[in-house]
């Protein structure tokens, strides 16, 4: 997938046919169901609303963070709670996680958080304008460890082109994984991507920044002996 070199930030990459996720079933708790039924209509964003900037969504100009695949929402909730001056948009397809985050955000009275219960690629292509996001986060995506499933990994060149399009010049793309082969795959893909520089002094990984809360998933992985790898890249301003 190539973008037009003359207007790279305005070109939308084509949809990929292979999904990077599988929607899991399971029972919903009462609180999770409340989040979907009562809070999603108020704090949720929909593709049908069209392409809108964070400024239009929140009614102010603030640092904007887009998190893709927030899981059960613990990390995103903590960030939004501790940084009311920042506006957060989360994307997740799994209903329990969406419901849980929305229920807790509503009970906490948060006004700086909105959620898409949608496919992330559709949101990136259809719902957010170019150069509208200051920070894009991708924490602990499914590593699809089996070789025959590597094509399902979300970190692929076409996805990185979407990231490039959405980030403001100077904006940051922050990834984290506890699967070393996937961390190496992320580095390999990013090394081939245009318009990014690795913020690691050694050109590999950075220590976990204070602004990324440590999740229960991450804590469990550390108990199992998994390393955790943070990668932060900055979108280089165009010349």
Automatic annotation (TrEMBL):
GO terms for molecular function: tRNA (guanine(46)-N7)-methyltransferase activity. Pathway: tRNA modification; N(7)-methylguanine-tRNA biosynthesis. It catalyses: guanosine(46) in tRNA + S-adenosyl-L-methionine = N(7)-methylguanosine(46) in tRNA + S-adenosyl-L-homocysteine. Substrate binds at residues 146, 178, 215-218. SUPFAM superfamilies: S-adenosyl-L-methionine-dependent methyltransferases (SSF53335). It comes from the Bacteria. Its EC number is 2.1.1.33. It is an enzyme of class 2 (transferase). Keywords: Methyltransferase, S-adenosyl-L-methionine, Transferase, tRNA processing. S-adenosyl-L-methionine binds at residues 67, 92, 119, 142. The keyword Transferase applies. Pfam families: Methyltransf_4 (PF02390). Coiled coil: none annotated. The keyword Methyltransferase applies. Catalyzes the formation of N(7)-methylguanine at position 46 (m7G46) in tRNA. HAMAP family: tRNA_methyltr_TrmB. NCBIfam families: tRNA (guanosine(46)-N7)-methyltransferase TrmB. Belongs to the class I-like SAM-binding methyltransferase superfamily. TrmB family. This is tRNA (guanine-N(7)-)-methyltransferase. It comes from Kushneria aurantia. The gene is trmB.
